[in-house]
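Before the break, one more example. Copy the sequence into your notebook; we will annotate it together after we see the structure.
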Amino acid sequence: MPDNGADRRREQRVEFSYLCQFKVLSPKPTVKSFTGYLQDISMGGACVQFEDKYGLFPLNVNEVESSRIKLTVKTLKKDPLIVFAVVRWIRKNTSNQSNSILIGIEFELSEYWMKERMRELIDLKNKDHKMMWHLWECYVEEQR
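Here is what the structure looks like once it is written out:
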């Protein structure tokens, strides 16, 4: 039986998407910022997907892999969830016709409050209707 990686995961993953913004933090003076979706989420990490509109792959894989990112997730609460993570892998999405990039991240949840906020975000999966309206409002706001 082939190893797909999912069997090795320490935490159960939630299949739900949340609008997010992330910045790749690097020693270089240019910080790249993107808007995408946080998905396949667990307490340990997630996948971030963002559109590569022109198919240019705007990230240098060698520079980004193992670097830190600052992730801002819009939630139902007033304040967004802000956490740091380490990039574990990056690749082009080959599962559909869109030009999108997938980034596997591992969260750095060092403080108790960070873990609690992440757990709250994961638990929102049970409130699908409310979350869908929230995502729509965030999307509309981003388009302005």
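The radius of gyration is 15 Å. DSSP finds three helices and six strands in the chain. Try to locate both features in your own notes.
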